[in-house]
Every structure is written in C-alpha cells, then in structure tokens.
Amino acid sequence: MFADFSEEKKLWEKGCEFVVGLDEVGRGPLAGPVVAAAVCFKKSNLPPFMENIRDSKKLSQKQREGWYKFLIEQPDIKWGIGLISEKMIDQINILEATKLAMKRAVATLNIEPNYLLLDGNFLLEDLSISQKAVVRGDEKVISCAAASIIAKVTRDRLMKKYDAKYPEYGFKKHKGYGTKQHLAAIKEHGACPIHRLSFAPFK
C-alpha cells in the first residue's frame, strides 16, 4: 500500500493551506527517546514522485535515508522534530510523552498550521488547531508517511550515537527495542542512563 494526498487534498479544497502530517517513532523501545516529526507540503508545488513514498517500517534503511535526504532538502517542504527523553517518559508515561513530542514537532515548523493529521487514534489536547486522527495514517497519508521517515531516521541516528557511549548494549543494532540481545545485555549489565525505568523489565 502506498500513501497518497487524498486527505491533504480534501483539506486544501476547504481552504486549509498548511496541512501538517504527524507521526512518531519509539513508543515501544526499552531505551532512548520518543521522536515525533511534523511535515507540511505546499499545495502548489508537490514534489515529483511523492506518490511512491511509504511508511518507514516498509522501507529499507537505505531507502529511508534516501527519502530523508530528499524531504529535508526540499525548500517547499516544512518539517519539524520533537523529542522527549526517557526520563520524561518515565515521569509522564509513553502516551503523554508521544503527544508532547508531536506538539514540540508542530512548534518547530515556523508556520501556523490550519489542520493536523495524526497517525494513531488520539488527538492533541490544549491546541486550537483542527485535527484528525487517522489509524495507520503512516500507510495512508503522505504527510504522515514522510513524518514517519524523518522521525525514524532521526531516532536511529541518535541511537547509534548512544551505541558508541554504551557499546555493551548493542543499541546500534536494535535501537533500544526489547530483542533477545538487548534483554541479555540488561541482565548482565543492568540499566544504563538512557533506559526507561518505568518499562518492564525494570519496573
């Protein structure tokens, strides 16, 4: 399945100039931050071959890196990143951290969005912007798919940096998810400073 511009086009036709797609990466891992991205395409100048974009989970690392480079270099594509640390996740829970990451991503766009399309089944409270939650939005909505790619590449690069700092955990390979390798490393070495202590097996 490829995402398309159908959701964005419906809103553009209603006069919403700045339609922003949102997605996050990193709700499930045992370590590291949750990262959200916000992406806004300009109605009058859609990049060529964007209809080939897909949810980041269905792309190889090389494909994701290629799309990431393309997306961030386009002058007519506005994008922003929001990051919430593992410490904050432990304090406010992962759902609230995800919402906060999305709000921060929107705040970094340097535009006033008219409408938000969120991947998921929740909306962002305390915002005066019209919103719609789209289940599996990263598979259906191009701006959400683009956001998923930017968020994924951003978080993966960050976890590679953590791998250099804490090499015994193998973050470069599993990005903090609860793989057998990661769980074995936790059993041997205990928690490191970027582990989410509110998550099993730490909780």
Terminal Cα span: 38 Å
Main pleated-sheet profile: 5 strands, mixed
CATH architectural type: 2-Layer Sandwich
CATH superfamily: Ribonuclease H-like superfamily/Ribonuclease H
Number of domains: 1
How many alpha or pi helices?
8
- Overall form: globular
- Overall pLDDT confidence: 93
Low-confidence stretches: none
Query: From the helix content, strand content and strand pairing, which structural class follows?
Result: alpha/beta
Q: Would you report the number of β strands? A: 5
CATH class: Alpha Beta
The proportion of strand residues reads 15-25%
In the CATH hierarchy, the third-tier topology is known as Nucleotidyltransferase, domain 5
Q: What pattern of helices and strands is seen along the backbone?
A: HEEHEHHEEHHHH
Radius of gyration: 17 Å
- The side-by-side strand order for the widest beta sheet comes to 3-2-1-4-5
Helical fraction equals: 40-55%
Q: Which secondary structure elements does this structure contain, and how are they paired or packed?
A:
Blueprint: H1 6-13, E1 19-25, E2 34-41, H2 61-73, E3 77-84, H3 86-92, H4 94-107, E4 115-119, E5 130-134, H5 137-140, H6 142-165, H7 171-174, H8 180-189
Parallel strand pairs: 1-4, 4-5
Antiparallel strand pairs: 1-2, 2-3
Helix pairs in contact: 2-6, 3-4
List key phrases describing it.
5 strands; 41% helix; 203 residues; alpha/beta; Nucleotidyltransferase, domain 5; 5-stranded mixed β-sheet
Structure in words:
The protein has a 5-stranded mixed beta sheet. The protein has 203 residues and is an alpha/beta fold. A hairpin with an 8-residue loop joins strand 1 and strand 2. Helix 2 packs across helix 6. 41% of the residues lie in helices and 16% in strands. The protein is built from 8 helices and 5 strands. It is globular, with a radius of gyration of 17 Å. The mean pLDDT is 93. The termini are far apart. The chain has one domain: Nucleotidyltransferase, domain 5 (2-Layer Sandwich), CATH 3.30.420.10. The longest helix is centred in the last third of the chain and has 24 residues.
